[in-house]
Amino acid sequence: MRRYAFAAIPLVAFLGIAGAVANTLYRESVDGYSPAAIPSALAGRRHPAVDLAPLAGLQAPGLNDHTVDGHIAIVNIFASWCVPCRLEHPALMKLAKDSRIKLVGINYKDAPQKAAAFLQENGNPFAAIGIDTTGRSSIDWGVYGVPETFVIDRAGRIFLRHVGPIDEKSLATDILPALEKIIAAE
């Protein structure tokens, strides 16, 4: 009898794992649950204080509170060594053409000369860029990886946090609807 009990352990473990996966898939399809969605603890609150030096080699100013406050702003945290950041760059170039917003960047743990070369080669969508070589300022924003993007209203409150690269889909389903809500509320 004991042998049968021990033989059932792998079956019970498999059924437990299968049940957890089935539950997650059910919640995704019915409730819209997304395990990849990471809420921001700062949503609805004022953005963290920022005072970062400009990226040398570009004509963009550094990033501070005055750069963001009073504007509908999008803050994008990026790095030249980040492959998803390179993939999202065309979407940022497109977003930079929207005159309703101010697109600014925080260069995260990057060599300034490499970041400047990346932006000179691919185009600079940012109205201002601050360098965060230690990552300390980005941690204040709750960033744990790049790219991450924040939509901020004119009062300096974080309206949306988008984790991962921006593409056409995320522009249409996340970023642009957030901008429209901010504009409609004004």
Structural account:
The chain is α/β, with parallel strands linked by helices. The chain has two domains: 1-35; 51-185, Glutaredoxin (3-Layer(aba) Sandwich), CATH 3.40.30. It contains six helices and seven strands; from the N terminus they run H-E-E-H-E-H-E-H-E-H-E-E-H. The chain has helices at 2-31, 65-68, 83-95, 112-122, 136-140, 168-185; strands at 51-52, 63-64, 73-78, 102-108, 128-132, 148-152, 158-163. Helix 3 links the parallel strand 3 (73-78) and strand 4 (102-108). The chain is elongated, with a radius of gyration of 21 Å. It starts with a helix and ends with a helix. 34% of the residues are buried. The mean pLDDT is 88.
SSE layout and pairings?
Layout: H1 2-31, E1 51-52, E2 63-64, H2 65-68, E3 73-78, H3 83-95, E4 102-108, H4 112-122, E5 128-132, H5 136-140, E6 148-152, E7 158-163, H6 168-185
Parallel strand pairs: 3-4, 4-5
Antiparallel strand pairs: 1-2, 3-6, 6-7
